Known about the structure:
Blueprint: H1 8-30, H2 32-51, H3 53-73, H4 75-118, H5 124-129, H6 149-163
Helix pairs in contact: 1-2
Amino acid sequence: MSFSQIPWFFLCGGLTAVGLIGSWFALRRRGPRAAARCLAWSLLPIALYLIGILQVLWRFGVAIGDFFGGLAFSPKVWSGVILVGISMVLFVVTGGLRGRARRKQEKGERDTAATKALSTAPPAAASAAGMPARQAAPVPAKRTGAATPADEDFDEVAAILRRHGIS
Length: 167
């Protein structure tokens, strides 16, 4: 059936009329807010017809239907779907491998830095006692200047939590 074979004006007008009657009932039972919402929905069918969007939506629906109808019975299309699936699997697998390679490289760089740090000569007192030398952890530098606004916010949150006995 084509678009021109359907009496769209009468169909849309009928849907709008039914919606207007429903809006009246909504006004009586649920109030003006529900009635206004129902009225908005009921005006859409005739508005779509008058604007001409209904024919565009019809063509869109026919195109989607044709696409899926052709998809179901075409070996050529199914071959394409299978290739798209293989492509997606390859994208996912290679993305995971790339992340793994990066992690390995970063780990190798950290291991190299740790090996260099351990290869330095231990202090005489530690080696004499037969104990391994310990690396001193870097001490963070003290902040200078005023606190940042983010720190002030966290202080306020901490104070609120303490007032409510949560800490």
